[in-house]
Amino acid sequence: MKTKICSAILCLIAGSAFSQVGIGTPTPAAMLDVNGTMKIRNTPTAPALPGYQILALNQNTGGDFQVAQVSPQLIVDAAVNTINTTNVNASAYAAKKSGGISLLSVDLFSTWRQVNFTTADRTVGTASLLSNTDNSYTVPSSGVYAVGYYFRYGTGLQASILAGTPGIGIIKNTGGTYTVLDTREFSGLNLAALLNITFSESSINSLYRLQANDKLYFGLTGSGGLTASLLGSSTASFYIYRVSN
Question: Is 2 part of a structural domain of the chain?
Fold first, then answer.
């Protein structure tokens, strides 16, 4: 009896050392080849990822579904790369001018002047979204957009009330029809004629529904009292990106 048991053990050892075991297949292609479902009733919970490997199934075209270990960091890196390459917000654009600002006329709005943003002022985004011809941003697709616009005239503080109630604004051009998207006036302070101050710094930050191919112009309203010398030392910037359908 002992001889039979030892022989069986030796056969098992020899079989595991020199052959492959197949479950559900007569022709195993690995040390253990399972052709079917697998059920594991209890598994321990890993306290943290460091030191652990994740098992993944490689479904290649040859039908050889092999299980291999994968580092958790490899999965994280692949996910980040996918986000960076396929989910880039194609509408995102930002530009900034520090000095060198000149004001251009805007059709149908005689009291408005447009800031001369160009692709050279771009800090983020695809250059083709901004036109160097009419200095406008073109909306690439319809949806809700976050838009921010900032302008500081000179140092942002003037020792007099500027005439013409100047401020900043955004104009929208939809198929040749111009409308005011939003405006903000510079604020002033008058203390019994003893001290007149204009806070010549303002910003617009809000959400707007825009249509594909809308053009946006960033400029100033009531700018007749603004001098070219201070415009040369002024600062302007804007950003825009789509946030929803």
Answer: no
Same domain, 228 and 191: yes
Distance CA 162, CA 226 (A): 8
In this prediction the pTM is 0.62
Q: Give pLDDT tens digits for 142-177.
A: 999 999 999 988 776 676 656 667 889 999 999 999
User: CA 204 to CA 240: how far, in whole Å?
Assistant: 11
Please give the angle made by the CA atoms of 201, 94 and 178, to the nearest 5 degrees.
75
Question: Residues 25-38, buried b or exposed e (16+ Cβ, 10 A)?
Answer: eeebeeeebeeeee
237 and 162: one domain?
yes
Distant-in-sequence, close-in-space partners of 226: CB < 8 Å, separation ≥ 6: 103, 153, 162, 166, 220
Domain that holds residue 62: 53-87
Asked whether residue 43 is assigned to any structural domain, the reply reads no
Residue 42 lies inside a defined structural domain of this protein: no
Give the count of alpha carbons within 13 A of 137, CB side only.
Answer: 32
Do residues 78 and 106 both lie within one domain? no
Strand partners, 207: 146
